[in-house]
Amino acid sequence: AAMRAKYGAPPSRFVDLGGGLTVHVRDTGPRDASVLMLIHGSNASLHTWEPWSARLDRRYRVIRMDLPGHGLTGPSPTGEYRATAF
């Protein structure tokens, strides 16, 4: 709860994908702009992209998320971490 309070404040949202998986997402920038989806690497979180998104979201809609098992998303309820499972 402390981590979510510290790192999950707006513009963070938590999206329920069903099956027990809730994903931490940040979606910033103009809603009518071209979309950039930023996906972090292993052992990282969406916060990796904060310096980039601070500049990019002036012109683009920037969406970033914590992959299962990273950041505030938490573990996969099925234990499946392949990209095709997500």
Description:
This protein has 86 residues and is α+β, with helices and mostly antiparallel strands. The protein has a single domain (2-80), classed as Alpha/Beta hydrolase fold, catalytic domain (Rossmann fold, 3-Layer(aba) Sandwich). It contains 2 helices and 4 strands, in the order αβββαβ. It has helices at 2-7, 50-56; strands at residues 12-18, 21-28, 35-39, 61-65. The chain has a 4-stranded mixed beta sheet, with no helix packed on it. The protein is globular. The model has no long low-confidence stretch (mean pLDDT 93).
User: Which strand-content bin applies to the residues?
Assistant: 25-35%
Mean pLDDT across the residues is: 93
- Lateral strand order in the biggest sheet: 1-2-4-3
Strand tally is 4
Query: In the CATH classification, which architecture applies?
Result: 3-Layer(aba) Sandwich
Classified in CATH, the superfamily is Alpha/Beta hydrolase fold, catalytic domain
Distance between the termini: 24 Å
